[in-house]
Design goal:
By secondary structure, the chain is an alpha/beta fold. The chain is built from 18 helices and ten strands. The chain starts with a helix and ends with a helix. Bound molecules: adenosine-5'-triphosphate. It is found in: Cell inner membrane.
């Protein structure tokens, strides 16, 4: 409990930290007052059973005072706690939002998106539940028994000692069980995350799974993940119930020992029967608090897990921003002895040096996994290089600042993301202040005007989740229109590998030619037209540049590029034949 309060304090600002301290103090006061009220029951009962009305009337106002003070402290603490809980919901979301926008873009992948959405929904609610629902009963469950023990020490020290030994044993058992059940909760959480990721993946990849007749295989993955989820939840239930059972058993044993001791003291004449009854009532209330503690500790562990996951994300190092961003001289790109590794062990790029002069077209080719996409991602600073530097207009991208870099770079990758919204919204997002004329011009150059003409409501047509109403080539054209409208001097482009129909192919080619004009373009090239038109071609293999030069030079050289060229011409020849035979 102390741990979660300490962790919460690191999540919030100074005024909220003070509010948290106030809430904890109020709940501690509530627990003490409750414990004292319980303890007062002993002399009241004792006096009542002995029919000593003078003594009873002395104690009754004390009991009433404690009762009122307890409820006032409870109301103040609860109000402050709820207020803090509402703020915590906002604070968790705001801090996650503020921090994740500063994390390297390379940090994001499908699993991260799933984790983030769980943190923002269930995680934030778990965290808010701590001051909202959990702290009060948990603090009461610890503080009021301690108060009872102290009070009882004045009344009957042997019983106080027995209760103290019992409470220490129950707390030790709870700690031990927390560790065991906590492991089960970790496994359950991982299984839940895996299950959700597989279901999302299965839904998103339906078209591919169906085309390749792999829906059964896809189902297997989902089913295995869901089965594991079920197994983990059953294991958690068994350990959870088992743990709670052991705790309850320990508490019952404590109750039995105290009852036996009280009866023995009473029979031995050390304890008046009236006091003995009072002490037993007190013990029962005491035990109830311990049961509450056992039941709530599981919810506390879950909240602590959620809080730790949020704090882990907040502890991730954001991209360092320069204090005084430098101004690039032009739109030339240079990689100087760049080395990069995703995991710190495997070198993905190794001493890559490359100069792309302003307004030139550089085509990057190479086998799958050779590091082409990584190279492009480093230029856009999705990650920082491990060694060497990436420069734009002579300035290291780390000295340029993310916003300034993003203003100068357009990215057209294969997996075009289209938002739920109108076609217009999807194009204009790259430059919200663009005029209608600029929008129409970008659309004309990217051949998006053809799409506008085809759609029932033109620009206002909603294009559905992830652009489901557009074809692959059309989505690429929308993405190119975005880049044209943004009008950034540098374009990073990953050409679509998927074969397009003849009409789309021509339209995409036209759009790309418009985009490349007057801009510095680095393109992962898959089309023959692109490599032929390139000012320089760079061949990557195993993270190193193995060949570079113009198309003619490289063909004459007869190395890797020649292999690439032969492969592509065969593939395109095959596509041409296939197109002809259909006609
Ligand atoms: N986010 C990542 N985390 C860890 N390793 C990665 C990540 N992305 C790529 N890699 C690894 O880095 C290497 C280079 O990958 P990259 O995607 O840059 O190659 P590529 O040439 O673009 O491949 P392809 O043509 O298949 O897209 C591969 O071994 C890949 O497995």
């Amino acid at each position: 409990m102390i741990t979660i309060v300490r962790l919460l304090a690191t999540l919030v600002d100074r005024p909220r930290r003070r509010q948290l301290a106030r809430v904890v103090a109020m709940f501690v006061a509530t627990g003490v007052l409750q414990g004292l009220a319980f303890a007062c029951v002993v002399p009241v009962l004792d006096a009542a059973l002995r029919q000593d009305w003078d003594a009873a009337t002395t104690w009754l106002p004390v009991l009433a005072g404690l009762f009122v003070a307890h409820h006032v402290a409870l109301a103040v603490g609860n109000l402050d706690g709820y207020d803090l809980a509402c703020d915590l919901l906002d604070i968790t979301l705001a801090r996650l939002g503020d921090h994740t926008v500063r994390l390297p873009l390379g940090w994001y992948d499908q699993d991260r998106t799933g984790q983030l959405s769980r943190m923002a929904s269930k995680g934030a609610t778990d965290i808010a539940s701590v001051p909202g629902h959990l702290l009060r009963p948990l603090i009461a469950a610890v503080v009021s028994p301690i108060t009872v023990i102290v009070a009882m020490a004045f009344l009957e020290w042997r019983l106080a000692l027995a209760l103290l030994a019992g409470v220490l044993a129950v707390l030790a058992a709870t700690r031990l069980l927390s560790a065991i059940v906590g492991r089960g909760e970790g496994a359950y959480d991982a299984a839940m995350a895996e299950g959700s990721a597989r279901v999302v993946e299965f839904a998103l990849n339906q078209p591919a799974l169906r085309v390749f007749g792999r829906t059964v295989h896809g189902n297997e993955l989902v089913e295995t993940a869901l089965k594991e989820q079920k197994r983990a939840s059953r294991r958690l239930l068994v350990t959870g119930f088992g743990g709670l059972g052991i705790q309850l058993l320990a508490i019952q044993a404590l109750l039995t020992v105290v009852i036996a001791l009280t009866v023995q003291l009473s029979l031995g004449g050390t304890l008046a029967p009236a006091t003995a009854i009072g002490l037993l009532v007190l013990t029962v209330r005491f035990v109830e608090s311990l049961i509450d503690y056992g039941e709530l500790s599981s919810a506390l562990r879950i909240a602590e897990g959620s809080l730790r996951r949020v704090l882990d994300v907040l502890a991730l190092e954001p991209l360092a921003e320069p204090v005084a961003p430098a101004e690039p001289a032009d739109s030339g790109i240079e990689l100087r002895d760049v080395a990069f590794s995703y995991d710190g062990a495997t070198q993905v790029l190794d001493r890559v040096s490359l100069t792309a002069p302003p307004r030139s077209l550089t085509a990057v080719v190479g086998p799958s996994g050779s590091g082409k996409s990584t190279l492009l991602r480093l230029v856009a600073r999705f990650h920082d290089v491990t060694a060497g530097s990436v420069r734009l207009g002579g300035v290291d991208v780390r000295d340029l600042g993310t916003e300034a870099l993003m203003r100068r770079v357009s990215i057209v990758f294969q997996d075009v993301y289209l938002f739920e919204g109108s076609l217009r919204d999807n194009v204009i997002m790259s430059r919200p202040d663009a005029t209608d004329e600029q929008l129409r011009e970008a659309a004309r150059l990217a051949r998006v005007d053809d799409i506008v003409a085809r759609l029932p409501h033109g620009w206002q047509t909603r294009i559905g989740e992830a652009g489901s109403t557009l074809s692959g080539g059309e989505k690429q054209r929308v993405s190119i229109a975005r880049a044209l409208l943004k009008d950034a001097p540098v374009v990073l482009l990953d050409e679509a590998t998927a074969a397009l129909d003849a009409e789309n192919e021509a339209a995409v080619q036209e759009a790309l030619t418009a985009l490349a004009a007057d801009r510095t373009v680095i393109v992962i090239a898959h089309r023959l037209q692109t490599v032929v038109a390139a000012d320089q071609i760079v061949v990557l293999d195993g993270g190193r540049i193995v060949e570079r030069g113009s198309h003619d030079d490289l063909l004459a050289h007869g190395g890797r590029y020649l292999d690439f060229w032969r492969e592509r011409t065969q593939a395109e020849g095959w596509r041409l034949l296939a197109t002809e035979s259909r006609e």
